[in-house]
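One-letter codes give the sequence; the integers encode the fold. A sample entry reads:
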Amino acid sequence: MDANQIEQLSGFLKPEQLLTSPEELSVYAYDGTAMLHQLPDCVVLPENARQVSNVLRWANEARVPVVTRGSGTGLSGGSVPVAGGLVLCLVRLNRILEVDTRNLTMTVEPGVLTQAISDAATAAGLFYPPDPGSIKISTIGGNVAENSGGLRGLKYGVTRDYVMALEVVLADGRILNTGTKCVKDVAGFTLKDLFIGSEGTLGVITRITLKLIPQPAAKRTLLAMYDKMTDAAQTISAIIEDKIIPCTLEFLDRTTIECVEGYAKIGLPTDAEAVLLMEVDGHPAQVEEQAQRLEGLATAHHARQVRRAEDAAEALRLATARRSAFSALARLAPTVILEDVTVPRSELAKMVAFVQEVGERYQLRIGTFGHMGDGNLHPTFLTDERNEEEIQRVEKAMREVFEYAVQLGGTITGEHGVGLAKKPYLAGALGPVALDVMRRVRKGFDPNGILNPGKIFD
């Protein structure tokens, strides 16, 4: 962008809505992904959908790249700026517009924090289940754009399962409304589903209507401790095979346990090779019965101890400790690369063992944790980007992990998205026909290619 284009933009924005100084721009040069950064030419902070429309209409005519951003917590480089482009940061569109208890919905703007949505639902006696690890700082717009998951994904699903309607500004500035509050709606194509998980490549989301559900009446949290990681993985398979669907079924390996305990100090066993955090919710009688079955299955698969949370406060401490895994691991190395693969649950033991073997073969330290109940693992590489030789080993190891996940019938990402970081591996995961169809869809929505160019695929 040149000075003349910056001047044109300033004509329909307040001065404080357009950032151009290097100091201001540096804040928006990266997201949560390691080793990726690029200064934008400017940052625009719109306050409503009409301003978003004006910016996109102008950018489309000027052929200026636009990268949409919320809090910048993404882990695949999806909101890393593009050279010569602008960042469209939606954090000022941050209102909860309506909580509709008659229809069990909430309508919000994209800059609302995920935790604020959860709190507003709770205040109304309702429940918004999606809970990404970044729930306290991520925005709902980013959650929708990435189709975020979370700890409760096994039982309650992911963000897509709770989006009922969207307002989206298209690349040419037109405003599209898709979806309704109706539980059933099959009038035409379900266009809203195209935008969920599209990583800002098809349009800019400016309003979201979410489904809420009743709060569960009771819950019970358990912590199972293991001397072998494979025993923990086999416990997961046994739980699913026994047709128990916990709301949370989380895994931490020894490296992660040591880091989390050093960080949170809640009494995790640092000599265990793995722990499972399990939570069931629902009717009190069912919760108690399922908790007993979980305890029995864990013991049958060689858990050395199964501990029940004594009260809600302890359950919250355990869940909070799990959410802190990434932060805790980040204390161990200058560069932390948090990866994300998903395999069928029947293949978890193989995947966990392979990650461990790859780490040993490439002489890398890898902490593994994740949502094992839905097959989603987060191998986390603890490294130093200044060590070029080690980074080369990390890249080789990551490629093997992704390829093995695909061989097992899995995928290269369960919730972080493709963005820049996983673009090289997408063809191997999807094949040429799927990529061609995706390119055609993208071209149809954004023929000039201004929306998040270079992300997902070239």
